[in-house]
Amino acid sequence: MIKFIIWLVTIAGLLPVGFLSIECLRHHAMFTNSQNQQAVEPVIVSDSIKFGPSRTTLPLSTKSWPASAVLCGIVLVFVGMFFLFPKNPWKVYRNGLSKVGKYVEQLIESREDGTAIIISEADDSNAVSMVRKGRNISLFVVSRMSIEAKIESFFSRHAIKPISGVSLVTKGIGDDVCCCEFALAIDPNVNTELILTLFTDLFGVDDSMALKFREMRP
Question: Taking the model in full, what pTM does it have?
Answer without folding.
Answer: 0.60
